[in-house]
Amino acid sequence: MVSLKIWIDISNAPHIRFFKDVIKYLESEGEDLIITARDFGDIHKLMNMYDIDFISVGKHGVSLYDKLKESTSRVYELVDVINDEKVDVALSKHSIELPRIAFGLGIPSLYVLDNEHALAANKLTLPLCNRIITPNKIDIWKLMQFGADPNSIIPYNGTSELMHFKSFEYNDNIFDDLDLKLKYPKTILMRPEPSLASYLDADCHKSVLSPIVDVLKEYANILILPRFKAQAEIFEGIDNVTILEPPVDTSSLMKKADLVIGAGGTMNREAAILQTPVISCYPGKTLAVDQYYIDQGLMFRSNDIDEVIQKALAFIVNPHEKIDFKTDDLFQIIIDNIYDLGNEGK
């Protein structure tokens, strides 16, 4: 059988963990992969950590002007990378550029979506995708309002974070390996908000976690995993607060911790899957994928500081019991659709 040429574009750090097992599987099957990644946050470090070969193309913009300029430049650069490659199928998760280039060059594209509130990204991409894999918790009507063809939508039971644990091996010695100096018997892992994202109106020099840290640092060890340098500086010099320098084994950290408090999304949902108690204080609208775990009893959500603090103190004393829940095999859904789309033109 003739191998497929598959293009995968990585635009954000969590997408590496999402795609790493897909990449390894396709390589083991002898497929020809082209992996592109923009220079943003810890993407390059994580790609190297997982031993993934990639081509660095483009970077991230902060202001609306910069976002438009950098995305436009990235499309321009990526076209030259992809045009002569005779790609059979293109795959991405919330990449702005891949669906636009794939559509323009006549390449079938498979798109993974889990944020129905990413207004600009969804309007720019969903109408151009051949197939869209999305949690069944997300309202299909909302995706259709962005221009998605309902016949292109492939719903599944679960969320994209399920992919992060397909080959996960827990390191019970993670605290010792990181040489953490822990004063208290309980440890809380915190993740600040994605304040540089286009879908969230936030100040990158402030965090909703600050008043929560000020109280909880008297009761538990606080580990902060910042997204960028300016965010790390918010928490520098605070007693009993350790600022982690990525890349680190976040999955083992979450499983080892007694509680996760996150103002973002991905890490909260990962903690829910690992069944570590988790509190979401994400400052934007509640995502359907977060509501999925809230409904399962695996995540608590509040934007009230006092309520978050009280719930945190309760969780570190009395964590919830293990909860059984069923999901679909997202990995197999992705693999099946890659081959189905890729072989259509063969």
Task: Provide an overview of this structure.
There is one protein chain. This protein has helices at residues 14-28, 43-49, 64-82, 97-105, 119-125, 140-145, 174-177, 210-216, 229-234, 250-256, 266-274, 288-295, 305-317, 330-344, and strands at 5-10, 32-39, 55-59, 89-93, 109-112, 131-135, 153-156, 187-191, 221-224, 241-243, 259-262, 278-280, 300-301. It has 346 residues and is of the alpha/beta class. The chain has a seven-stranded parallel beta sheet with strand order 3-2-1-4-5-6-7, sandwiched between helices. The model has no long low-confidence stretch (mean pLDDT 92).
| Residues in helix, % | 25-40%
Secondary structural class: alpha/beta
Q: Taking Cα atoms only, what radius of gyration do you get, to the nearest Å?
A: 20 Å
Determine the strand fraction and express it as a percent band: 15-25%
Major sheet size, sense and barrel closure: 7 strands, parallel
User: How many DSSP H or I helices?
Assistant: 14
Overall average pLDDT: 92
Tertiary shape: globular
Strand order of the largest sheet: 3-2-1-4-5-6-7
| Overall strand count | 13
End-to-end span in angstroms?
11 Å
User: How do the SSEs run, as a string of H and E?
Assistant: EHEHEHEHEHEHEHEHEHEHEHEHEHH
Low-confidence stretches: none
Walk me through the topology.
Blueprint: E1 5-10, H1 14-28, E2 32-39, H2 43-49, E3 55-59, H3 64-82, E4 89-93, H4 97-105, E5 109-112, H5 119-125, E6 131-135, H6 140-145, E7 153-156, H7 174-177, E8 187-191, H8 210-216, E9 221-224, H9 229-234, E10 241-243, H10 250-256, E11 259-262, H11 266-274, E12 278-280, H12 288-295, E13 300-301, H13 305-317, H14 330-344
Helix pairs in contact: 3-4, 8-13, 10-11
